[in-house]
Specification:
Elements: E1 2-4, E2 7-10, H1 15-38, H2 43-49, H3 58-64, E3 71-74, E4 78-83, H4 94-98, E5 100-103, E6 105-106, E7 109-110, E8 113-114, E9 121-122, H5 125-137, E10 142-147, E11 152-153, H6 160-164, H7 167-185, E12 189-193, E13 210-211, E14 215-218, E15 224-227, H8 229-238, H9 258-263
Family: Belongs to the glycosyl hydrolase 1 family.
Protein name: Beta-glucosidase
Pfam families: Glyco_hydro_1 (PF00232)
Length: 268
C-alpha cells in the first residue's frame, strides 16, 4: 500500500499544537493503516467523526489484519500544524473533521525553499520524522519511499542548459536521502527509494507546466530526452558507498558545469 505522506510539524511545543500535528498524521496515514494493524480507525477519528465513520465487524478486522506486504510513502513536503478554529456551522469533510490548520510559513519565514508547484516546499528533515513516526506506530514495518522529488517550472524562455544544470534538485536528493539514512540508523526498516520522477511528464491538473524528472523531455521537438545533472549525480551516488555509512551532513559527487552542458547534450 502506498500513501501520500506529508509530515506535520507542531508549530510550538504546546500540548494543543502537538495533539493537532498527531491528529493530522492519524487522519492522513492512520485512516488507512490503523485498521490493518489494529483493527479500527484511530481514536481521534472516532471522536471527531462519530457515527459517520463505519465500524468493522470482527470478521472484517480479522481479514484486514496484516494484509499488506509493505508501507509505501509518497513524501514530498511538510507543513506546520496548529489547531483549527471551529464553528457550529462549518461544513463536514476530512479537513474539517481533523480540526487542524496547515501553515507554510511563520512570521514571513517559509518552512522551506519553494518548489515550482504551489504546494511544494523543500523540507528535508520531514522525511526523517515521517519515517520514524511510521516505524514507531506500526512496530517497524517494511518501508519504501515510493515517490520523492521536486519540480521546476516549464518555460519557453529557458534554454536547455538551464534545465539540465539542476543544482537545486541535486541538493534536494542529497538532503532528503541523508535524512532518510538517519532514519535507518534510528531503526527504520527502509528497503527502497524511488525518485519522482525518471522523466518529465504530465503532472495531474498542472499538465506539462511542471518538470519533476531527472531526465529532461523536449515535448516540443520529438520528445528527445537529455540527462540532467541530477541523473548523472544519481548514477555516481548509486555506485558509491552506502550513504548510511557516512557521518558527514552530505556526500557530494561531481556534476557537470554549465559550460559542459552547453558543449555536450547527453541522450537518455
Amino acid at each position: 500500500m502506498a500513501l501520500d505522506a506529508e509530515w506535520g510539524e507542531p508549530l510550538t511545543d504546546s500540548v494543543e499544537d502537538k495533539e493537532a500535528a498527531e491528529r493530522h498524521l492519524e487522519f492522513q496515514l492512520g485512516w488507512f493503516l490503523d485498521p490493518i494493524y489494529y483493527g479500527d480507525y484511530p481514536s481521534s477519528m472516532r471522536l471527531a467523526v462519530g457515527d459517520r465513520l463505519p465500524r468493522f465487524s470482527e470478521k472484517q478486522a480479522e481479514l484486514l489484519h496484516g494484509s499488506l506486504d509493505f508501507i509505501g510513502l509518497n513524501h514530498y513536503t511538510s507543513r506546520y500544524i496548529i489547531p483549527a478554529e471551529t464553528s457550529s456551522d462549518q461544513k463536514l469533510g476530512w479537513l474539517e473533521d481533523s480540526s487542524i490548520t496547515r501553515l507554510t510559513e511563520v512570521e514571513g519565514k517559509p518552512i522551506g525553499d519553494k518548489g515550482a508547484s504551489y504546494w511544494m516546499y523543500i523540507v528535508p528533515w520531514g522525511i526523517e520524522k515521517m519515517l520514524k513516526w511510521v516505524t514507531d506506530r506500526y512496530n517497524r514495518p517494511a518501508l519504501y519511499i515510493t515517490e520523492n522529488g521536486m519540480d521546476d517550472e516549464d518555460s519557453a524562455c529557458n534554454c536547455l542548459a538551464d534545465y539540465l544544470h539542476d543544482s537545486r534538485r541535486v541538493k534536494f536528493y542529497q538532503d532528503y536521502l541523508f535524512h532518510a539514512a538517519r532514519a535507518i540508523k534510528e531503526g527504520a526498516d527502509l528497503r527502497g527509494y524511488f525518485a519522482w520522477s525518471l522523466l518529465d511528464n504530465f503532472e495531474w491538473q498542472l499538465g506539462y507546466t511542471k518538470r519533476f524528472g531527472i531526465v529532461y523531455v523536449d515535448f516540443r521537438n520529438g520528445q528527445k530526452r537529455y540527462l540532467k545533472n541530477s541523473a548523472l549525480w544519481f548514477g555516481r551516488f548509486l555506485n558509491s558507498e552506502p550513504l548510511w555509512k557516512h557521518s558527514l551532513p552530505n556526500k557530494s559527487f561531481p556534476v557537470q558545469s554549465t559550460e559542459q552542458i552547453h558543449q555536450e547534450c547527453v541522450y537518455a
